[in-house]
Amino acid sequence: MEFPDDLKYSREHEWVLVEGSVATVGISAFAESQLGDVVFVELPAVGDSVSKDEAMGVVESVKAVSDVYSPISGTVLEVNDDLPESTELVNDDPYGDGWMVKIEMTDVTDLDDLMDAEEYQKFIAESEG
Amino acid sequence: MSAAMRDKQAGLLLDEPLIFERSRSGQAGIDVLGGEGGEECLPIELRRGAIDGMPEVSEPEVVRHFLRLSQWNLSAATTFYPLGSCTMKYNPIANEAAARLPGFANLHPLAPDELAQGALELMAELQDMLAEVSGMDAVSLQPAAGAQGELTGMKMIRAYHLDRGDSRRTVLIPASAHGTNPASAALCGYEVQQLAGNSLGVVEAESVRRAMGPHVAALMITNPNTLGIFEREIAQVAEIVHAGGGMVYLDGANFNALMGVAKPGHMGADVLQFNLHKTFSTPHGGGGPGAGPVGVRQVLADYLPNPRIVRDGDLWRWSGAAPKSIGRVRSFHGNFGMFVRAWAFIKALGGDGLMRATQMAVLNANYVRARLEKTYHLAVKGLCMHECVLTDKHLEPTGVKTLDVAKRLLDHGFYAPTIYFPLVVQGALMIEPTESESLETLEQFIAAMEAIAREAVEDPDAIHAAPTLTPVGRLDEARAARNPVLRWRAS
Amino acid sequence: MRFLPQTDESVRSMLDVVGVERVEDLFRDVPAELRATAAVDLAPGLPESDALRRLGELAGRNASAQPNSLSFLGAGAYPHFVPAAVDNLLQRAEFYSAYTPYQPEVSQGTLQAIFEFQSMVAMLLGLDVANASMYDGASATAEAALMALRVQPQRARLVVARSLHPQYRDVLTTYLQGVRDTEVVEVGFGDDGRIDPAALRQLVDKRTAAVIAGTPNFFGVIEDVAALSAVARDSGALLVTATAEAMSLAAVRSPGELGADIAVAEGQSLGVPMSYGGPGVGLFAARDRHVRSLPGRLVGEAHDTGGRRGYVLTLATREQHIRRERATSNICTNQGLIALAVTIYLSLAGKHGLAKLGALNLQRAHRAQAAVAAAGAWKPRFSGPFFNEFTLRGVDVAAALRRARDAGVVAGVALGEWYPELDDSIVLAVTETHTDADIGRLAEVLSR
Predict the structure, then answer these.
(1) Per CATH, is C86-344 categorized as 3.40.640.10?
(2) What is the pLDDT of residues B250-304, one digit of tens each?
(3) How far apart are CA C119 and CA C113, in angstroms?
(4) Residue B55 in 3-state DSSP?
(5) Interface touch C326/B333, C-beta < 8 Å
């Protein structure tokens, strides 16, 4: 299972790619493997404000449903329009074509609470035990 | 299964299209005499012509269609059907005859009370019998299903608190509870606070003591719990909740383990629902109809649904006068057809017979547990009640999971146990034999489970491919959910 | 005891394997105080013959067992002829003793039948998608209201027709207790027995999530669904219709076609005996865009790895066993076997049988209304169009109904209990089960 080094990770299993003040968010390989085949994705609308640690969307598989939490506060710049039609992208390429939301951050210090790849893997191992 | 059996079976299962695909223009399965010109009684803009797409099939073809469909089902009557928490016991055929007596089947629900005395008396007797079995003070038969019974119970608790000017917002629910519990609580506007059980899944008094507070309206608890274990601290738990001003809701889904053994009314429950289609033998029907009567202690009796059956001199009557009632949850009087069946079941067994049924159900479950505990990992060690929970833990090296075991059981001609419930157990396989199964049947099931455990080591791929002997194999549920096709359309 | 296959011998050997001495020892984890008081004080078990004798005696004391008894009761439950094939097929144990089809590979009978049911219900109600059924028309109406509130979370107002079946309104009220602050406003009816669209327009605004109306309503009158739908739409509210007499869908243009967004019905009329009010079946249909907010079970088409077509429960993540407290409903069972009865009935009646039954019901009921009116003592109360149920105004309703009953005829339901201003009126239903002789008797008892 992959956890790219250039990304940050939240306790709710989202990943964040930081480029300046813009954060791209999706769910990690661990999350998608737990869910199974994703069948439905609900994303916020462009222009919506999102708050750190609050639910901003929903991802559903055949047997489970999960909120997608925003790891940071900000405004939604872009959502992945391919996702609703091609939900399998979340499973096949969770860090690439399966990206979900791009957010203009209001407070860069929100990122301090996130984990790096190594910390995240340890976190998963501990919660699995 | 032998190769010879396999070949025979394929020849007996006949393919069957959708009924719409059998339609041939102009056909009908009933004859109707008269009515010509009747449509002119309606203004022209309201008239509907014959509905395109509705079937056009003759009677023998309709009969053949549904007969063939029936043959594609495994059912409790056909084979061992050990779904945990569902209580798939024998559905007495005499009950079916009883429910179909014209005096019952053709009775209009608004028939004047004097013209429905037989129905009213049957319902009054059923109420009394359910109260006796459960140790409760009053019963309403109105809720149409277990989940609706739960909703009714929670609405009554809500009304009770409001009546006291008390706006408690929280309900405590164990993580092992059936999903209808939190769903019903949420439908009453409550927030759910989850309680962890101990390693037996049992709710400990200490955890309730810590969670209890003036914000808690109720505790919902299932006894035995969904791991098949008796909630041994329930009396203390109930006392803590009551001392804090809360109410105790008991989910009666596992009541088959309690008859003659322990009464909910004596263990501190204030309200419970009965699942007539579980403990009381009414058929599951492929997903209903059920019936979910509620029983309450006196403290909640004022809030029971309206109307109620009352005695007026020599007659039984409906009375809608109770002012604190939560109102109605269902039209008319509830699923009366199921009351007839449940009444007949209880009468056939009698008090001692009900206890014997519980005893045999619990013995059967323990026998399966004891025979399989060397081969499968048990979620809980020691005696169980009417159901036992296994897991796929020891199969880990083979890559075979609970789902695969379930699917391979279908090839052995058994319905699979409940899988992946309760959620608190990883890879759960919940087996509830019920009292209706003989030792021989249990041995056949045990043999199949042992065969699957061996096959998991020797040929795991065969199990991953299962089922292979059923009319269809594993269906692609993900694709079905991504692009749902939920009805037939004419092309 | 005939239901228990254990023998003394098999019990003995099982106890040995389990490792306890006696059956009672299986319960040693149950506190002694509880065991001491648990004895079930009920009479000893009855053999089948004795039980059936007692049941026959009870059944015999109900009106439907009396040979000369005649009833024109409707008001949410309707007498219709059920072909023998329906009940016969329903008694296939493979259907009635099966469970919810969670293992689809061995439940294709149930699943395909439900798929057919969903298709037929969608056609009947004139909408895109229907679920696998709800408990009854009343709870289906309540669930439709909750769904309307769910899909429009910023709106918290419901406009409910006073002419909607009183029990449906009661159940709606119960279901709304504790749900986020919902304002329920009533809209009345005019001399034609229908909702006045202008009056409705006064009450529907941008805070309104849905308008809920019965059609035919409690008086048997068919509403102008197209006009009501226009009013609702103008304020962005949904129109929910509730049809207590499903047979009317055979002859009257469907709610969906006329603009309803969610349409529900009680399906008892279509192949299900009245059985003192239950079990029945709730029909529930909506538009495609709302499918993920639908309550209840859904069956969808699927394929196995060999490409074989089959059916599965789908979109299950809406439901209680996964979503738990965020489920679209708490419903678990649907009304499986009753939905099957409806499916078999509709397969037999089909396109042509339904059209003829619709015409026959219309003819019988209109003939009956004319016959009673001609007898002089009763007059039609409302001028609106009706299917097989209508309201009559007379004098001293209670006495008239009593006289009719003394002559063996239950002539209808007095409306005064729910509509004080209509205490001079009764509502009655006439179906294909009523002969000309029956109608003659009705006119006769209501002429006195």
Answers:
(1) yes
(2) 999 999 999 999 999 999 999 999 999 999 999 999 999 999 999 999 999 999 9
(3) 10
(4) coil
(5) no
CATH 3.90.1150.10 maps onto chain C at: 63-82+351-445
Give me the residue label for tokens 């109620």. B308
Q: Does domain A8-106 have CATH number 2.40.50.100?
A: yes
Region B77-82: what's the mean pLDDT?
94
Instruction: Show which of residues 358-417 on chain B sit within 8 Å of chain C, judged by CB atoms.
Output: 359-360, 362-364, 366-367, 369-371, 383, 406-407, 410, 415-416
Distance from CA of C292 to the nearest CA of A (A): 10
3-class secondary-structure state, position B150:
helix
Tokens of B477: 């549920």
Show the domains of chain B with their CATH numbers: 1-29+52-72 (no CATH), 94-348 (3.40.640.10), 351-474 (3.90.1150.10)
- Mean pLDDT over the full length of chain B: 94
Sequence spans of domains, chain A: 8-106
Q: Which fold has domain C63-82+351-445?
A: Aspartate Aminotransferase, domain 1 (3.90.1150)
User: How big is chain A, counted in residues?
Assistant: 129
Rounded to a whole number of angstroms, the distance from the CA of A39 to the nearest CA of chain C is 9
Count the alpha carbons within 13 Å of B321 in the hemisphere toward its beta carbon: 5
What's the mean pLDDT in C421-447?
97
In this structure, what token pair is assigned to residue A7?
């990304």
Identify all chain B residues contacting A61, using CB atoms and an 8 Å cutoff. Answer: 478
Taking one residue from B and the other from C, the number of pairs with CB-CB distance under 8 angstroms is 711
* Closest residue of chain C to B291, computed from CA coordinates: C279
Question: What beta strand segments (E) does B112-252 contain?
Answer: 138-140, 170-174, 191-195, 216-222, 247-251
Give the pLDDT confidence score for residue C330 in this predicted structure.
62
Give SS3 for B419.
strand
Summarised one tens digit per residue, pLDDT across range B317-326 is: 999 889 999 9
- Chain B residues inside the 8 Å CB shell of C40: 132-133, 259-260, 351-352, 354-355
Q: Do A61 and C317 touch (CB under 8 A)?
A: yes
Whole-number Å distance between alpha carbons of C133 and C140:
8
- Which of B373, B384, B386 has its CA nearest to residue B437? B386
> Are C333 and B147 a contacting pair at CB < 8 A?
yes
Every domain of chain C with CATH number 3.40.640.10 lies at 86-344
Q: Are B292 and B251 in contact (CB under 8 A)?
A: no
